[in-house]
């Protein structure tokens, strides 16, 4: 038995085994055995007699949060320049900033700020876009490795439709750099792993996509990209790939759309019925990025539809389309956006509840990492200890109500402990 990773946290435990409601054990024991949850108990079972029990008093104990989609290089300009729509926003703000990351010193400074922020926050798992640059991407991976957070990090591929300062010279160059990056990180990290990252169809030639499809087949690596975020983008993809039946089909033609290829597609705001059907069939994960979709005026994704169809859905902060790296904030943004969508555009899709949003930000997105995002037995033990004493209330509240307030009102100062796969990281 690994004693360091076998212990119990005692406190008010709340998690979502299913979207429909919270599972609550007041003054319970969340038992971690060799890095995995052994379950949550009202009394410590005899078999765990003698293990270390960390008494968290009245604090809340909840699963760690999962950010399925964000851009590390964009952390520098979070909160700036959100007065444009996607394609103009990319040209005006995003590509010029990402071009700076060819300078490793600059990248190191920027990525240190980013890694420190993730380390302080509630995120325990993240899927992260870097830039096209190999040294900067390896630097980001090293910095994230030290935080103890589990992250999948992608060196971005782009060989068309961007400034020369950012564009990889050809598909062959882009693929060669990708292989160099994979060699550079092979066997080097415990917490961090690579994920193939074609930016989106407009940034990648067919030749590049074909090469990435072959690389995915050869390596089994997961893939992340963007899908059906904005109307102009969708029209552009149709022009660039007239032979594709819909946007998602343009990835699928290269074997980069779920099935044997674990895939995250960010946004899916304007997915057609055929695209939704294919995502469902292929088990594609949808990263719902409500804040970004509002900020750059993309719209509001029909998350209720995705949940009702039992599709794989999680939350993404999408920094810097989203200005906050907080997954709690992504939960409340998802709820608020769903209410406006319901009121203004489609009253057949009921707004998200708090437990549904919490589920998306834990177990929903966590499923991309395996058994992650819950305290059910067998799940990797990712946990947050939340001290909500600083959010005082005169009336009695249940643990689920306290968690609801934490979703809306808390910040990093309320996190008093953070565990990833049984290791204390904060
Ligand atoms: N589509 C392609 N690149 C990006 C990006 O960096 N952010 C967002 N929100 N959408 C994208
Ligand atoms: Fe994005």
UniProtKB/TrEMBL annotation:
BP GO annotations: guanine metabolic process
Entry's Gene Ontology molecular function annotations: guanine deaminase activity; zinc ion binding
Signal peptide region: none
Segments forming domain Amidohydrolase-related: 61-423
GO CC annotation: cytosol
InterPro entries the UniProt entry points to: Amidohydro-rel, Metal-dep_hydrolase_composite, Metal_Hydrolase, Metallo-dep_hydrolases
Protein's recorded name: Guanine deaminase
Organism: Anaerotruncus colihominis
Taxonomy of the source species: Bacteria, Bacillati, Bacillota, Clostridia, Eubacteriales
């Amino acid at each position: 038995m690994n004693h360091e990773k076998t212990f119990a946290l005692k406190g008010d435990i709340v998690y979502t085994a299913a979207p429909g409601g919270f599972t609550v054990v007041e003054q319970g024991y969340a038992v971690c055995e060799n890095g995995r949850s052994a379950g949550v108990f009202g009394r410590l079972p005899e078999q765990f007699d003698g293990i270390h029990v960390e008494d968290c008093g009245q604090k809340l104990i909840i699963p760690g949060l999962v950010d399925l989609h964000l851009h590390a290089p964009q952390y520098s300009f979070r909160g700036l320049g959100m007065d444009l729509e996607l394609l103009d926003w990319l040209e005006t703000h995003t590509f010029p900033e990402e071009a700076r990351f060819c300078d490793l010193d600059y990248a190191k400074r920027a990525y240190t700020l980013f890694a420190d922020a993730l380390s302080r926050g509630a995120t325990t798992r993240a899927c992260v876009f870097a830039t096209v640059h190999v040294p900067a991407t390896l630097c980001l991976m090293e910095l994230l490795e030290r935080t103890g957070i589990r992250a999948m990090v992608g060196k971005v591929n782009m060989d068309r439709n961007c400034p020369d300062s950012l564009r990889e010279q050809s598909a062959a160059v882009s693929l060669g750099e990708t292989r160099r990056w994979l060699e550079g990180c092979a066997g080097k990290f415990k917490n961090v792993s690579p994920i193939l990252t074609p930016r989106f169809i407009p940034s990648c030639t067919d030749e590049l996509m074909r090469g990435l499809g072959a690389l995915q087949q050869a390596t089994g690596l997961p893939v992340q990209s963007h899908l059906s975020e904005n109307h102009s983008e969708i029209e552009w993809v149709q022009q660039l790939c007239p032979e594709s039946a819909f946007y998602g089909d343009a990835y699928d033609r290269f074997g980069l759309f779920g099935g044997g290829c674990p895939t995250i597609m960010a946004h899916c705001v304007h997915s057609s019925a055929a695209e939704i059907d294919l995502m469902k069939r292929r088990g594609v994960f949808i990263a719902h990025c409500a804040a970004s979709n509002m900020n750059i005026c993309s719209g509001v994704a029909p998350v209720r539809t995705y949940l009702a169809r039992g599709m794989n859905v999680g939350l993404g902060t999408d920094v810097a389309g989203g200005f906050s790296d907080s997954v709690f904030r992504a939960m409340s943004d998802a709820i608020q956006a769903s209410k406006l969508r319901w009121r203004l555009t489609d009253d057949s899709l009921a707004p998200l509840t708090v437990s549904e949003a919490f589920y998306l930000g834990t177990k929903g997105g966590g499923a991309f990492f395996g058994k992650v995002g819950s305290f059910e037995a067998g799940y990797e033990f990712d946990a947050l200890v939340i001290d909500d004493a600083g959010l005082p209330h005169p009336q009695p509240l249940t643990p689920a109500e306290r968690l609801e307030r934490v979703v809306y009102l808390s910040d990093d100062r309320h996190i008093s402990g953070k565990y990833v796969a049984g290791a204390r990281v904060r």
